[in-house]
Write a structure and sequence with these properties.
This protein has 649 residues and is an alpha+beta fold. A hairpin with a 4-residue loop joins strand 8 and strand 9. The longest helix is centred in the middle third of the chain and has 20 residues. The N terminus is likely disordered.
């Protein structure tokens, strides 16, 4: 059989998640692959985070003698009987009392301690007390904490710092722990290059191993990242065989789909048993689960979000089972979903969300859903599962969120929904720098979407730059129209330049919006409802043009940076956006007009302690200075109140 004949495998199944897990578990059990890791002995200072491989029994008692629990005098309790304030008892040092410090052994013949604060020294040899004490008063008896031979820790116990302290107190210097399961992380793909390498089109920086290896190490495993392997069947086969022979689990990253160079499924099938190729999950559909020579082998999709999710779903349980522990499930909370999303029937979709508490409600805002958007993993506060028999989630629907961050961090989030601007990113960085428990959680849905969110009580503030075509005024008429029933404060954040984002050197010699009519140009637009899109539509109407006359009008991006990235990548000749985005991508900029970008803040939040640090930053000189350095902004009005609008105005 030729390589071409045996390396093409197109079939992808749609096995439900629970069924895929069960099939994999059954295959691993049948192959003897679901084994507990053998024991190894480590010193206490190396044992934190490890798992006990057998029960731990105390070697000595703690304390291992009767110990004074206070500074004072050791006495025999019966010698203190009858002592009162009006009839104190006198004790002779050496005969009826002995000075002791905390932790000292209680001398033989004594059974109690009286603390120094209530002992009166009559002279060098005579002490006086004014109350009687019972036997073992202020004495830690032998074995009060730990008794020799008692069970200190059970088998399969995850060791914490306090556990190690207890072991030391019990006379234990080293512990039998389970060997960490070795997980080989094997990046594949001819297109992969190392971090820091010069990049050319088609190159992909290999960073998935940092994510996957780090996750394995956090779960208690030991990750070993191999050098990337090119898409060559024989090289891949040899590398997999070597990894299987030297590892407890093998993770092959990329090559799991059904393309002409996706060899993983065929290789697993040739070398062992292919149990699952394709699960009904999104992202992560083309996951591969198999067994080779008694070793679990997982084929993980190459997109980073898919890779992280499938490892969480399928690899984490394997590591835990081999260690004999079960890490507690993530904390779950209920939140209100802010945006309607559609999801394909038949797949469980895992949607990453940002969270924030607005009033009495916890608000969940979906993040960009692409499987290749690694920053969505960075920004996500939680996961919402859209069940496979559902068509999606509705705005305002209650959802269950699996938390990826502590709930205390989530409660400190400031929810900003609306138009994108780079100054919001700058504010987010400064806010977290100065107040580590707070984050500015931005969702870029456009100016109108932000105003609607504020009106529904789903955001602490909205960024907006909407021009009223009739009056030439920014934002206020739209606030009155879309934010009803809420008292709001409209604060200016910046005035900014809008213009044409063009390649370096402006090779097509663009100079004005009239160039939209040129047939040799490809435009990239902003999404419907954004202030930039509405500005464009206003200008098109002013010039007597229709959207159909603009090549690329229907291509939409959700941020100014995304527009700039499309131009930088050669996918468009120009777009309408802001100067700072053009500069960030090393592009040129043709300035056209200045616009007003405001924050619309409900009065209840404007006056709250939650927003006070953010508002102080906006009004501060440091923020204005850094915004000015970006270029294309005017901060002369930054932080000033444009208007206060009462509900119903």
């Amino acid at each position: 059989m030729t390589q071409h004949q045996h390396t093409r495998r197109y079939y992808l199944s749609d096995i439900p998640l629970d069924e895929a897990r069960q099939n994999f578990a059954d295959a691993l059990t049948a192959a003897g692959a679901m084994r507990l890791m053998p024991a190894e002995t480590v010193s206490l200072d190396q044992a934190r985070g490890r798992v006990t491989a057998e029960p731990v029994w105390a070697k000595v008692s703690s304390p291992h003698y009767d110990a004074a629990a206070m500074d004072g005098i050791a006495v025999l309790a019966r010698d203190t009987v009858g002592a009162t304030e009006t009839s104190p008892v006198r004790l002779k040092l050496g005969e009826h009392a002995v000075w002791v410090d905390t932790g000292d052994p209680v001398p033989e013949g004594f059974d109690a301690v009286i603390m120094v604060e209530v002992v009166h020294e009559v002279d060098e040899t005579t002490l006086e007390i004014q109350s009687a004490v019972a036997p073992y008063n202020h004495v830690r008896p032998l074995g009060e904490d730990i008794v020799a031979t008692e069970l200190l820790l059970p088998e399969n116990y995850l060791l914490r710092p306090m556990d190690l302290g207890a072991c030391a107190a019990a006379g234990i210097a080293e512990l039998p722990v389970r060997r960490k399961p070795t997980v080989a992380v094997m990046p594949t793909g001819t297109e992969l290059v190392q971090i820091g390498s010069p990049l050319k089109p088609g190159d992909i920086i290999e960073f998935n191993s940092l994510i996957l290896g780090g996750m394995v190490d956090e779960w208690g495993g030991s990750s070993v990242t191999r050098q990337p392997v090119s898409d060559d069947y024989d090289r891949l086969k040899a590398t997999i065989q070597e990894a299987v022979a030297t590892s407890d689990i093998v993770v092959i990253n990329a090559g799991s789909s059904a393309g002409s160079e996706d060899y993983t499924a065929s290789l697993v099938e040739d070398l062992g048993e292919l149990v699952v190729h394709g699960a009904a999950i999104r992202p992560g559909h083309p996951v591969i689960l198999g067994v080779v020579d008694g070793t679990p082998v997982l084929g993980i999709p190459g997109y980073p979000v898919s890779a992280a999710l499938t490892c969480d779903l399928f690899l984490k349980p394997l590591v835990e089972q081999m260690l004999g522990v079960r890490v507690p499930a993530r904390e779950r909370i209920t939140a209100t979903f802010t945006r309607k999303i559609l999801s394909p029937m038949g797949e469980d979709e895992f949607v990453r969300v940002r969270l924030g508490r607005v009033g009495e409600r916890l608000i969940a805002t979906p993040i960009q859903r692409g499987a290749g958007v690694v920053t969505s993993l960075v920004r996500a506060d939680g996961l919402v599962v859209v069940p496979r028999l559902s068509e999606g989630l509705d705005t305002g629907q209650g959802v269950t969120v699996d938390l990826l961050r502590p709930v205390e961090d989530v409660n400190g989030n400031i929810v900003a929904i609306g138009s994108h601007d780079l100054t919001l990113d700058l504010l987010a960085s400064m806010l977290h720098r100065d107040n580590g428990v707070q984050s500015l959680s931005s969702a870029n849905v456009g100016s109108l979407g932000g105003l609607v969110a504020v009106g529904r009580g789903e955001a602490h503030l909205a960024g907006t730059h909407l021009l009223d075509e009739d009056t030439g005024e920014y934002n206020l008429s739209y606030v009155r129209r879309y934010v009803q029933g809420v008292d709001v404060v409209v604060m200016n954040l910046v005035h900014r330049l809008q213009g044409l984002i063009v390649p370096k050197g402006n090779p097509k010699e663009l100079s004005s919006l009239s160039d939209l009519a040129r047939e040799d140009l490809a435009f990239v637009n902003r999404q419907r409802g954004s202030g930039t899109r509405m500005l464009l539509d206003f200008k098109l109407a002013e010039m007597g043009m229709t959207p159909e006359q603009v090549a690329g009008y229907d291509r939409e991006e959700y941020t100014h940076l995304s527009v700039a990235a499309a131009v930088a990548g050669g996918k468009a000749d120009f777009g309408l956006g802001i100067l700072s985005a053009a500069r960030a991508m090393g592009l040129d900029f043709v300035p056209l007009l200045s616009e007003q970008y405001d924050l619309v803040i409900p009065r209840e939040h404007y006056d709250s302690d939650l927003l006070a640090p953010l508002l102080n930053l906006i009004r501060g000189d440091e923020f204005k200075s850094q915004v000015d350095a970006l270029g294309g902004y005017d901060t002369s009005g930054t932080g000033t109140v444009v208007a206060e609008i009462r509900a119903g105005e």
